[in-house]
Model the fold of this input.
Amino acid sequence: MSSPRIIIIGGGIVGLGTALKLGVAFPRAAITVLEKEAQVGQHQTGNNSGVLHCGLYYRPGSVKARMAVQGVQEMVAFCRANGVPHEICGKLVVAVDAPEVERLRGLHERGRQNGLQGLQWLNGDEMRAIEPHVGGVAGLRVPQEGIVDYPAVCSALLSNIAEQGGKLLTQAKVTGLRATSSGWVAMTTAGDFEGEFLVNCAGLHCDRVSELAGERRRVRIVPFRGEYYRIKPTRQHLVKHLIYPVPDPQFPFLGVHFTRLIKGGVEAGPNAVLAFKREGYKKTDFSPADLYDALSFVGLWRFLGRHKRMCWEEMKRSFSKELFCQSLQRLVPAICAEDLEPGGAGVRAQALDPDGTLVQDFSFVRGRKALHVLNAPSPAATAALTIGGEIAAQLVGEV
Done:
């Protein structure tokens, strides 16, 4: 095929990273990105805390671990080459008691196995030499972690894609997909688009798009909202780095932490509560169709049954600044409720198995002349270029 046409559904950072990498791998291809919003990166990409993750937490040998380690290097190189604001400020993971110290030692070893460089084990005094207000008894300094302006990354990606000859169509919501003898027709609110190959990077709606393409929805995207507070300017001196907790293996989410922002300020959070709308960034956001889709899925009920106490605690913390603050005080004891002001929120597109298990790793599903990215949790933004390269590699011989 002399000039194949590739359709990418979704103009978040993963879709854009994929478009760039496909343009490199297949320079003769005509690549079109379809985005339902008026601008790119409006959902998970533009509503996260802007962290560059380097792969400390992820199971050695997992796709996540490999892509995070490679991804942060590739993303930092891209930012440097394109003048995107970023900072490698380092992260401090804090253990507050003896059981957490043992788990932190396990993280230390996991980080070494994943290839992280320069990890430093710190006792309490050594921690407070670099982060004076932190609590805890031991810490692990991760120097490769950083922060970045992801919307600016998207702008740079768009410029590079345009230079390759790729196209972006906004306000082009996909309403149907029709298989043809040569590939696909994507029916959208901006017209119909034909292509020989389809790549689904639709994020919060990726399972629905895969269903439009004829795939069975075995796993379901269940939206979890993560809510943040901001530290008031007069108290931002309490946090100098990224400060993270040691994850509890009994719970599926990481827990609240402190993040310095690339445009200034410090964010604290997130919690994790069921969103009543897939793009529900406020407590009052509600979609009957989205809520029914979640509540009719047996996997959600099994998840809730397995983690009843955690879900109840997360819900209480969503409505109580004092409880939220108590969680933060485990890491920075000097923080108080008066130091917090409302911040933003993001919605995580979490794939859930029917047995109630969160899908933890990236999930790529091949279809007829199609590839579906059905789970791309953190560190997907960091690893967007690496994910795009992985997709391009999988399409060699088909495009």
